Amino acid sequence: MFTALQAHLLWLLQTALIALRALQRNKLRSSLTALGIIIGVASVVAMVAVGNGAQTRITNEVSALGQNLLMVFAGSRRTGGVSSGLGSASALTLADAESIRREVIEVEAISPEDSATVQAIANGRNWSTTAYGESPDYLKIRDWKLAAGSMFTDREVRSAAKVAIIGSKTANELFGPLNPVGQPVRLGNIPFVIIGLLESKGSGMGGQNQDDRFIIPYTTAMKRITGDKYLRCINVQIAGSDRMESGQQQITSLLRQRHRLAADRDNDFNIFNQKEIADTVNSISKIITLLLGSIAGISLLVGGIGIMNIMLVSVTERTREIGIRIAVGAQPSDIKLQFLIEAVSLSLLGGLIGVLGGIGASRAVAVFADFKAIVSPGSILLAFGVSCVIGIFFGFYPARKAAALNPIDALRCE
Description:
With 414 residues, the chain is an alpha+beta fold.
């Protein structure tokens, strides 16, 4: 003997089978109706994945700059009302860098920086690259390791030694598979000896290849390569992330005092705070991801309207069928449930195929884009859940309309 629960489950099963047979009779129409949901779900999953991937890449690029980093740049020089760009002003000196090292208690490491584009010649090859003059602390500041060899020392900085650390891209262009450590190289007309090989870091912010470079003592760069008396930049590592703001304020105050800037004058330098950059980038990335997901979500809404439209047409076409079912004993709740199951089934099928399509589209983006799209479980659950809700929401009115039909009028319908 059936219990009440078993009877209820049997009723649900019979109603579901009737609904599924109705969908099967109109395969093409059912497929086209589900297509709207498929496109919507796939768009949401793919767009959110692209946004997450872009955010992760940008975050990694900011992190690749180093840990707790402040970059102090000279301001821009203006000639005839035209700005020469950041770092062009003669404002930062070695004495400034030394004062920051001595007087700002938050400073853990510091590297004065000068740079120039050079023609590197070695092993019968030549390559245009950039030589960066730095201190021995540079690799610590940038959290950059050596694949081979060693970093130059303070003694080699004081003597302006002609030694260099080479990036992996530059090493490959000049030496191919050979180990560059210990090899001679000419930067311009100046002979150097390579004493270290950097591990690969890939592209940095702005798409610049971080592996295409030489790192030499800053004194060597200023005396032998550029002839500059001023620094392009001072890289400063602060002792902790919670002390970044304090360190920046102290450096600002110290440099204004050293440069004798009156209270009403603007700074002749600029300080870039890595933490502020990371926070700003993350905030913008989240907004872009939300925007992409919202735009894609509109297609889900359109798909839901498509389901409602088709279900209303179906109610009209099947009026006589509904009348016969009611006449032989079907309750309005049976009719309502049948049409709801049809709508939800279309949404569930569309949602499942859409999720698979979105994952496939995300992988396709990774092939053509410069970053990997990241599909998150949250976006899949959200898109799939919304598709189910859409099926219920947009299927309810047609189901209610079908259940409310007068059986006499329905039987008279041709």
